[in-house]
Amino acid sequence: MDNPSAALRKEINLTAPWALVEKFAGQHREKPEDANRGAEMIAEALEAVGVPVTMHRPDLFLSLPGPASVEVEGMTFRAKPPAFCASVPEGIEAELIFVPEASGGTPLDRNPTGTSADVIGKIAVIEGFALPNFVAGLEAAGAAGVIAVNPGDMIHWGTVSTIWGTPEPDDLARLPRIPSAAINQPDGLKLIEIAKRGGRARLRTELETGWFPQNMPVVDIPGGDDSEEFVLLHGHYDSWLEGVGDNGTGNACMLEIARVLWANRDKLKRSVRLAWWAGHSTGRYGGSAWFADTFALDLAENCVAQMNCDSPGCRWATDYTNISCMSETEGLVQRAVADVTGQVAKRKRPQRNSDYSFNNIGISGCFMASSMMTDADRAEKGYYVVGGCGGNIAWHTETDTIEIADKDVLLKDIELYLDAVLKVANADVLPMDWRATAAEFSATIAGYQKAAGDRFDLGPATTAVQELSEKLDGFYAALDAGTLPAEAANAVLKLLARILVPINYTRGSRFTHDPALNVPPLPTIAEAAALDMVPAGKVGFALTQLMRGQNRLVAALREAARLVEAAL
Question: Which SUPFAM superfamilies does its entry note (predicted)?
Fold first, then answer.
């Protein structure tokens, strides 16, 4: 089927999406009842343009930040407690300690960070954001609390749970047990000086954590074929206060794509499903995790790709050269970016964030953010790195208001996402190039082997990925020659995702959720790169872990190779 992207992009109209942006500018979507009203507004906007919508209403486990403060030497500093930190309204009083080695975190950091400092019973002061990795590491080291000094005049909301989505019983022990808070830099610099001379402070936090019913709109746009296969386009609608750039603009982007695709559903080969999530920050991706759990078998059988839409359409965000995507979707993303913007996109490995709740199922993914400010523009404005809003430092603050949205950028982002969705939905052969993934694996294994030296042999993994690469070369050659039917090829391409995405992005089993911490490439053998840091008395344990991890990796690679070979 011909790709109608160019024609359908001409049908994009900003009337409905911009009206939603303006409505969201006056609608908080942080507290559960306010977020539910935001979901109703999305549903009303969809219905107004003739798109039918299903409203799910799951109970989600959420943590709702309230007031916080830091009292020190007669001063009271304004603060924000991150979601899921311990609620201590009466406060804790303790000695302060500045921990520079646990500082410097940006919203893109996710791995546990501890300290060699004696933080036991003290309130640790760090520079950067209140992030789960830093707080978890300091809690494990014995800190009584954590205060994060944000890098500017504003204080950013966040979350410090390392649990992805709703916890299982065994996860509950990993909920943070200490209070933490963020303060701004002017106050923080004073606090750091006080900490350096051994001063004391009282840290107060107040949060409400529990179960709340949340609305989640979902739109299903049927394709023309009888296949149940679909592309999933998704983004969160809950925000800190009105959160126009994160993620009101994303909700508007998806609204317009739903309108255009519904009006042209007769031109679709595969179906498209659009979902607006609740519980992104206050539930640590609770909405998308609920959806992945509830519809896991349907997703496993029928979802051919997932695309995240977060913080498009923000002012000054004109750079599309760095896009998060899995290796097999890099070519797809590059073609979409080139066709719509004329820019050349480079791949970034997706990190463990942005509602990527489908890695354990094994679904290829692309996008998180799309348009971003250039490094030069950010430097000119004196901005630091944030996790959304196109790079605007209004991210996760009270200043993420209507001024952050930009009509021209929003239009371009709608065009980009629409084009990418259509490139998958209407492809005769799914546009996933697993040769790129195998090449990534080969480079990762070689890097790990170099780091491990003669302490561990990754030869079996090297051989297995070489054999898979050879089979894939034959597979794609048969596709190019027209000797491999598209239907048979697509079945293999989809099943390869179920095998290779988990081995590259997860440690846990299928139909679970790994922690909300970054996962290194090929995580089951990643310890090979860290053997230099393993104490002499624990090397044997690390080598045992590597042996087991390589077994899992090699088994997956062999399974993938057999799958490809059987199709030839």
Answer: PA domain, Zn-dependent exopeptidases
